[in-house]
Write a structure and sequence with these properties.
There is one protein chain. The protein is of the alpha/beta class. It has two domains: 72 residues, no CATH class; 186 residues, 3-Layer(aba) Sandwich (Rossmann fold). The chain contains ten helices and nine strands. The strands form two sheets. The protein has a five-stranded parallel sheet with strand order 6-5-7-8-9, with helices on both faces. Strands 1-2-3-4 form a four-stranded antiparallel sheet, with no helix packed on it. Helix 4 links the parallel strand 5 and strand 6. The chain starts with a strand and ends with a helix. The relative contact order is 0.12.
């Protein structure tokens, strides 16, 4: 931990460039290791008033051997929970938050647009919440085949009917348009996918939102507080086996092959 008066001019400027005023903090911690072996810096700042450590995003250092974090941000893992499974806590919490905000009712038909890891975890949470039918949509046949192994069939409107509620997890305008046309009147939609470009819909699709009185709501990340804690709930679901997270892990790499793993993903 370095007091501010010990920071070099370059380090001070680097800290300030992250959008923070260095004068608002008592000290910073620099982590000088990243995946490539270069000496990038990740700054951790101790706020004078809140007395909490903040790791500044978009900085090097996330693959350092150690990171200093506020103890209040730590979640204890059961002894028998593998680190491989625990690596899915964050996407699991995101999925859980989306389903929680969807307010699934007993017997609902729920469809998830996007059958990636978060989409499949969301499907599992929807099933646990009481949905009688949970389906997925994806343009990738490979993902749909994997989803079927995980217990979720591809959505077929002729077989499954219109949706009571749905999650848009792709961030693609074509998927959003397809979703809206598959919704029942007075249905509920959670927008979860980050868009890579402008989200445009046709006039006729927009009209369906109005005519069917569809409720659209956004979700961002997850909740971690004394009232709602998606992270703790995710760990609990992992521990009791009610959601089979281990089944989502398709490849395992030693740390020496980390770059290869990232390139594969």
């Amino acid at each position: 931990m370095l007091p501010l008066d010990k920071l070099t001019e370059k380090a001070y400027a680097d800290f300030a460039s992250k959008g923070c005023d260095p004068a608002a903090f008592d000290a910073v911690l620099a982590l000088d290791m990243n995946l490539s072996g270069d000496f990038g810096r990740t700054w951790l700042a101790l706020d004078r008033t809140r007395k909490r450590l903040y790791r500044l995003s978009e900085s090097d250092g996330a693959f350092a051997e150690y990171l200093a974090v506020d103890i209040r941000n730590l979640i204890l893992l059961p002894d028998d929970l593998s680190f491989a499974c625990a690596s899915l806590v964050e996407p699991g919490a995101v999925a859980r938050a989306a389903v929680r905000r969807l307010e699934v009712k007993l017997g609902d038909t729920v469809v998830i647009w996007g059958a990636g890891p978060i989409g499949l975890i969301a499907a599992a949470w929807a099933k646990r919440a009481g949905a009688s039918v949970v389906r997925v949509v994806d343009i990738s046949e490979e993902k749909l085949a994997f989803a079927k192994k995980f217990g979720f069939e591809a959505y077929d409107e002729a077989r499954d009917g219109l949706c009571d509620c749905a999650i848009e997890g792709t961030g693609a305008p074509q998927a959003l348009c397809s979703l809206i046309q598959a919704m029942k009147p007075h249905s509920r939609v959670i927008l979860m996918g980050n868009p890579a470009r402008d989200m445009t819909i046709t006039q006729s699709v927009y009209s369906q939102i109005l005519r069917r009185e569809i409720t659209l709501r956004g979700t961002w990340n997850s909740s971690y507080n004394d009232m709602i804690n998606d992270w703790e709930a995710t760990v609990a679901a992992m521990a009791d086996g009610s959601i089979q997270y281990e089944g989502l892990i398709t490849h395992r790499y030693p740390i020496s092959r980390t770059l290869e793993a990232l390139e594969m993903s």
